[in-house]
Amino acid sequence: MKISVLMPAFNAEMFLREAVDSILNQTFGDFEFVIVDDCSTDATRQILEEYAGRDSRVKLFRNEVNRGIAATRNRLMAEASPESDYFALMDADDIALPERFEKQLEYLEAHPELAAAGSSIWIIDEESRRIGRRDYPSDPRRITAAMIRFNPISQSSVMIRRSAVKATGLYNPKYRAASDYDYWLRMQSRCSMANLPEPLMLYRISTTQCKRTNLKRTILVTLELQRRYLFSRRFFSPSAVVSHLAKYPLLLLPSGLIFRLFQRLAYKPADSPRK
User: Fold this and answer.
1) Where's the Glycosyltransferase 2-like domain (predicted)?
2) 55: how many CB neighbours lie within 10 A of its CB?
């Protein structure tokens, strides 16, 4: 098989079927779908067992105790078939558009110098309505330039070469609140990534979202990671320093206000014109 799709799931029953269906209905079908249930207490396991029973591509595993997102992503990589060339990341509350794998695979095969490819994303609400769009820098040089100012990679939109994962290593559970940002900083410090400008994912913002409830912790970890790379030759720029320093006052604001501010700045409303 060409691709191992890797999806962690924890208490994901509300949106899980939409996520799984979007993967199983991809136009490119030569993949295994590896899912680790991180000791859910709702109906997540039963829903996943139902899918595993009717589609042989679904490979289901379960953590005996809740291990968190970073450790669960590491287990997903360990459980993936050694025959696959690529890892496609997925989250249990998002939706992949039907041609995601086909387009990312075609792009990476045409650009062997790249370690990974993400994409721009549509933002959806709890009813799966498109409420906005988030565009990311597409060129590897622009991604490098943006890396200290913000996270220019949408986790669940990424397809990674297995060789790049071997070079980068595992997710660090220490950075549970921003383990994806840590991973992309490490990968981009030694490799090159790109984003397809076309949205290939529907990214859900919901009231139950983990990052909303741990927002200040996420900011603290983000600042710690940025300090580590801020003055490295690959990432340093005066604008990166200014952007980094400007984030500290956010810690003085209420979490709810920070979340609304991020929502306002992070994407364009669906009905607004794109430049």
Assistant:
1) 4-165
2) 12
Q: Which amino acid is at 99?
A: E
- Whether 68 maps to a domain, the answer reads yes
> Does any domain span residue 194?
yes
Whether pTM exceeds 0.90: yes
Residue 254 corresponds to which tokens in the numbers above?
């209420």
The contacts of residue 239 (CB under 8 Å, 6+ apart) are 149
Residue 270 falls inside a structural domain: no
Note the pLDDT tens digit of each residue in 218-243: 899 999 999 999 999 999 999 999 99
The answer to whether the beta carbons of residues 104 and 200 sit under 8 Å apart is yes
Give the CATH number of the domain where residue 35 resides: 3.90.550.10
Determine the Cα angle at 187 with ends 151 and 173, to 5°.
Answer: 75
- Give me 54's structure tokens: 């009717």
For residues 153-173, give the mean pLDDT: 97
The pLDDT value recorded for residue 213 is: 54
What 3-state class would DSSP assign to 38? Answer: coil
- Domain count for the chain, please give it: 1
Closest to 106 (Cα-Cα) out of 86, 83, 91: 86
Residue 239 lies in a domain: no
pLDDT digits (tens, 9 = 90+) for 52-69: 999 999 999 999 999 999
pLDDT for residue 20 is more than 50: yes
